[in-house]
Amino acid sequence: MSVPVGAFVAVSAVLFFIGVAGVLVRRNAVVILMCVELMLNATNLALVAFSRRAGLPDERGSVFVVFIFVIAAAEVAVGLAIVLSAYRNRPTVDVDEIHAMKG
Amino acid sequence: MIANVWLIPAFPLAAFLINGLFGRRWLRHATGWIASAAVAASAVLAVGVFLEVLGGKERTTVTLYEWIGVGDFHVNVAALVDPLSSAMLLVVTVVSTLIFIYSNGYMEHDHGFHRFFTWLSLFVFAMLILVMADNYLLTFVGWEGVGLCSYLLIGFWFDKPAPQKAANKAFWMNRVGDWGYTIGMITIFLVFGSLTYTEVFEKVGIATQANLLLICIALFVGATGKSAQLPLYSWLPDAMEGPTPVSALIHAATMVTAGVYLVARSTPLFVAAGPALQVVGVVGAVTAIFAATIALVQFDIKRVMAYSTVSQLGYMFLALGVGAPVAAIFHLATHAFFKALLFLGSGSVIHGMQGEQDMRKMGGLRPKMPVTYWTMLVAGGALAALPPLAGFWSKDEIVGAAYQNGHVILYAIGIITAILTAFYVTRAMWLTFHGEPRDHHLYDHAHESPTVMTLPLIVLAVGSATLGLVIGFPPDAGFIHTFLRPSVEAGVLDRVGEEPRLVTILALAAVSVGAGIVGILIGLSMYVRHRPDPSAVARAFDGYYRVLVNKYYVDELYDRRIVDLMRGAFGVLWAFDVHVVDGIANGLGRLSTLGGSGVRRLQTGIVGNYALTIVAGLLAVLVVYGGYAAGVFKP
Amino acid sequence: MSFDIIQTALFALLTIGVIGGAAGVVLINRITAAALLMAFTFLCMAGMFVLLGAETIAAFQVLIYVGAITVLILYGVMFTPQRERPYALFFQKQTPLAALVVVPIAIAVALLAFTFRDGGKAAAGGGDLPALATSVFRDFAFPFEVASVLLLAAMVGAIVLVRRDDE
Prior knowledge:
The complex is a heterotrimer.
Chain A: H1 5-25, H2 29-52, H3 60-89
Chain B: H1 7-27, H2 30-54, E1 60-70, E2 73-81, H3 83-106, H4 113-132, H5 136-154, H6 161-192, H7 197-202, H8 209-227, H9 235-238, H10 244-253, H11 258-265, H12 267-272, H13 276-295, H14 301-321, H15 325-352, H16 370-383, H17 390-404, H18 408-433, H19 440-445, H20 451-472, H21 479-488, H22 502-528, H23 534-540, H24 542-549, H25 554-600, H26 607-630
Chain C: H1 2-27, H2 31-52, H3 55-79, H4 95-113, H5 129-139, H6 141-162
Helix pairs in contact in C: 1-2, 2-3
């Protein structure tokens, strides 16, 4: 037919791993949060793709996606709150410099 | 009563526990009476058991419970009640009771009063176990127990160096003997398959001469250690560092007789082992004369008595060796009385002289301490074997048996030793009680001991005077002979030749008495009339004299040859312990620490690293999953 | 048939947008630019949803991600100014190690993804709104309520976290 579901899943996979790479590679805490959002988006895409192409009457995957929206939003809010708190302590958001829990 | 025989050691054990737990804070001086009452109760029970055995129950085994039952190895906690053990029970409990009562007075001002009675009660318990046991292993438990208590009591005044060293010396020498006992015990089990006396003695025939010889020599080594015979004797004189009641009880009347008891009990083995009995007799005789020579020149009153004990124990082993075990036990009983009396009397003197033990500082004490004097005189006479005192009957029987069984040399040694014995006891009595007082300050303060101390002295004196007549007359046909014979039957060797004639018996008795009188006369002559003067004799034989005073330098010999060697070996072992054993223990600790500090470096505190670890874990999971899916890993 | 070509072309374009945007987020050092590229990625995602026929989800995507979350991120950027640094310092020290770990997994998963070759059974035509509404407000009403409580909790938590102590 049209675009095979595998294509969407492939895009989702690539996007997810770009997000993972971003989390592991970038120093700025805010950027890390952005990459986490990318990961969440990737899962959303995969879920919706499977949900729409499964031939089921209801939209189960999409319902799950709605909840992921909620959680992602909450997570960004709280995550930023933490970053701002940490920034107040020492004026840095560089994750390589925040190692008070060492040892 | 025999069924309740286990109550006899139970009372001293209870006294030990009560005194041990509550003695220091709550009971204090009551500990003495508790302990004395316990031992007295045991004595009463022992009399009952004795009477019951006398009445015909010749051999009973009273089993408490099965102690070890592993495969073929069975050992019970059981008591063998027969004439030998009931006689020993009686001697141990009666003499202990008297000494306990005496100690209430002697130790009154000592800070460790409660501790003294705790250990003493434990000692009596262990000794009773030793005597009552029906197998070699349980006897060994008692054997070790008395050794432990000996250590604790010799080192009673542990804050002073001399008692510490003496206690250690006693314990280590005993240990060497115990090694012999253990080897003997193991061999007995390997050969006979059992450790119970009755079972082993029934099967004596199945063992070879070599086996039996090994067993008997090994057991005798143990007896040598415990009973202070050559070469393991030198701990006993040093043990005099302990309180005098300890010397009386442990190192005169009871513990040191354990070796004699062991050999007497094992007579079936010794008799079948050929030369083993000879060895016992020779060692006994040589020790007897050896120790007597040293006692001639000692100045410490307790040391004289200690060497005398070694010498008299030698007589007992001599008796066992020549085939007269009844005489050995007889002498054991009489010696318990008169030697305990001599020690307690010495204690009374020391108590009156404010702790002075050197006879050179005594003299002329007779008017000041009459009860002590007369009781010690009786005991001294018994030691010198003057009739009709107890010592005469038992010692005469020993030397008589030696002669009649053909051991003429041993007989001669016995007679010479008797002369020496009479001499040194006369010397000791004279230096202490007669003549001019040599230290006037001490003399002025000297006083007789309180009744709690003199009463036991009197009782023991009565015993020393009459015991021999009561149980040992007529010779070889008295009460004790018929009573004990069934227990030690195997060891009674038949006379060489026919029944002795009355003339022979009387002649032997005359020689024994003569030896005693000769010794006394020489003593009196030298010390009363100074003909010859003792100091002149000492100067004339200066070399020999110094050898004797220095106890033949045996301690120095042991120190150099043996102890120093041991120190070298111990140094190696100590190094091993410090470097290897501790090294391993510390090394394990350090390993843990190193592991910890190594793993700690995983915690970098940087969140990114943690995220990386999570992803790496994901990779691992995928690898494993892929492996299963591809069939590389088998589930 | 022409419909198919349009769909495939759109898909290709959107893919480039998504992947390119994401790569930009990871690789570009200027934070503001990264944030805006992230918003662009979200938009292309919404387009993908529309391609799949999930218009409602696409609407939500735009509202929530492009709207709220992007703004939040920009606020975050605004309140945490950092000084300029050389490009190399924008990457954590563990970058080589991370590459070593991520690349194999990425390849494996991507390959796995391509096994879904068929088109899948398309749902009944039209959008997803009726079915979605029914599911959310009837079948999954309880989780829906819980999610709203969760949002409340997150909000309170965020406020508490950023409060200054002397207030």
